[in-house]
Amino acid sequence: MVDLHHPADVILEIMRDRRQVSAKRLIEPGPASDQIEAIFCAAAQAPDHGVIRPWRFVQVPHSARDRLGEAFAAALRERNPDATAQQLQDARGKAMHGPFLALAIADLAGKDTNIPAAERLVSLGCALQNMLLMAYAQRYAAGLLSGMALQSQALRAVFSLAETEQAVCFIVIGTVREPKPARSRPQPGAFVSSL
């Protein structure tokens, strides 16, 4: 039985209800500045071996979306010099979705080199999950966005990535236009075994 006055039940209910939502389906309103602060505070609670904070986030406000769109178009040209005008326009358009948008960046080798890249990525993954859950707890929808543009020189330049940094994904948050039904989730027996 779920007791929504018990913190563990509340957290599990939020986790069960959370959905991945594509950026195209997110509309205004997005989170207010105090809610964004709470979302980033949730990220700061992620496990961090060595206390090196091997990740950071760069917000992309609406005033910078055209610049991001041009980086997406340049990234497409890097991969496909023969991209059509329509393909380039579609690439630019991807920057315009979602009220709140931020790039998640992992530092895979900087600072304390005794912390392996895998642990650094796990820490970022935990930070992202905390952000998704906080956004959902605030009654917003959210999703993670990836793609080949993340590996491009154009995107690296726009976000001033250091040599040891990698763009991992975007996190997008807003109000969902049309909720989709829940997808089935695996039961623990499907992925848990004993030694």
UniProtKB/TrEMBL annotation:
<dbReference type="GO" id="GO:0016491">
    <property type="term" value="F:oxidoreductase activity"/>
</dbReference>
<dbReference type="Pfam" id="PF00881">
    <property type="entry name" value="Nitroreductase"/>
</dbReference>
<keyword id="KW-0521">NADP</keyword>
<protein>
    <submittedName>
        <fullName>Nitroreductase family protein</fullName>
    </submittedName>
</protein>
<keyword id="KW-0285">Flavoprotein</keyword>
<feature type="domain" description="Nitroreductase">
    <location>
        <begin position="29"/>
        <end position="174"/>
    </location>
</feature>
<dbReference type="InterPro" id="IPR052530">
    <property type="entry name" value="NAD(P)H_nitroreductase"/>
</dbReference>
<keyword id="KW-0560">Oxidoreductase</keyword>
<comment type="similarity">
    <text>Belongs to the nitroreductase family.</text>
</comment>
<dbReference type="InterPro" id="IPR029479">
    <property type="entry name" value="Nitroreductase"/>
</dbReference>
<keyword id="KW-0520">NAD</keyword>
<dbReference type="InterPro" id="IPR000415">
    <property type="entry name" value="Nitroreductase-like"/>
</dbReference>
<keyword id="KW-0288">FMN</keyword>
<dbReference type="InterPro" id="IPR026021">
    <property type="entry name" value="YdjA-like"/>
</dbReference>
